[in-house]
Design brief:
3 strands, three-stranded antiparallel sheet, 38% strand, alpha+beta, 2 helices
């Protein structure tokens, strides 16, 4: 699974409201339980993407 980290940062910033309450926390719990980070794409010190694999 490829996650656009930069986009998530923008979408979860104050004033942005694309998610239902608890969605971000639910994804974090899901990722902790079922996913393992396989690759992180960065540019200029900013995390752009994370590629996950099933654990």
């Amino acid at each position: 699974m490829l996650l656009w980290d930069l986009g998530m940062t923008e979408l979860t910033a104050p004033g942005a409201d694309p998610f239902e309450p608890g969605d971000v926390e639910a994804f974090a719990a899901f990722a902790d339980r079922f996913l393992a980070s396989e690759w992180i794409g960065e540019a200029d010190g900013a995390r752009l993407y994370t590629l996950y694999r099933w654990q």
